[in-house]
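Record type: monomer structure entry
Structure origin: computed from sequence
Chain ID: A
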Amino acid sequence: MEGSSKGGVLSHLSLLEAKARSRKTQLHQIKELRDKVEALRIQRDQLRAEIETHKILQKVRASLDKKCTKGGEEEELQVKEGEKMNEDSEHSQLLRLMARHTQLKDLLHAHHIIGGYNITKTIQGRRVCASLATAYEGVYLETYNVEFDLKPTVRIRRHDVPPFIPVDSLAEQSNMQTDIRAFLDTLSKYLNGYAGRKQQLKLVKERHKSVEVMESNVLCSILVMLLTVPGERVTVLCTLKYTDHTRCLPTGVYVQCEADKELPDSPQWKNNCSLLMETPVHKALTIMRDRWIIA
């Protein structure tokens, strides 16, 4: 019976891991599709601008050719004021289209440079703002923005990334002049790691009312919980440390029990520590509760 129970739990864990991998793959595919749609939309607008520009250029050329064939000052004086206004209007429209065409080319170039991250705004082709969305378990969370100056050199102008994320340090480690995407990829990992840990803490508080959160910090890189062992009237102090800030899983789990000094070294609690290292904390606590390890 015990072997069957373990097999069932392992099978359930494998199923959960498969679902998690599937969700991660789906999120990645959704992001790739959105990036492709954004790039195609920019290309569509660029082509439309080019077509309109060519049409008006043809009209302007035809008008100029017509004037040349007529020649003479007398014929020029006979041109109606309304026609002059139309020509002025066409020239103004041409200039606007040419400016829009240049802007779209700069936008498409910037979109290519930063590796497909969404561009929220641009200023005369010299500045772009990349948006980095965060998500956890299929739920989209906060979106952060980083604004870059593209000329004369690529540099970060401003951002709304939390101050405890080392943006400047990450920028220094990356060669943004040739590969902004490497910087954005690393920054995205930091932001998603933070968002995932923060979301886990929220789920622990919502789903595990008997678990007392004793300590956590703004980066959610440490989590100290007080767990109650049912039937034994003892409490366990469990500390999770996340030294890799790009991940949602802890790099160290430490257990203390004042009432029973030997409990942390027991096989059961060693298995619990391994579970907490390999499983998101809110899910690990649910498994431990279902096994009657904690209240």
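Annotation 1: The longest helix spans residues 2-70.
Annotation 2: The chain has three domains: 15-113, 117-196, 208-290.
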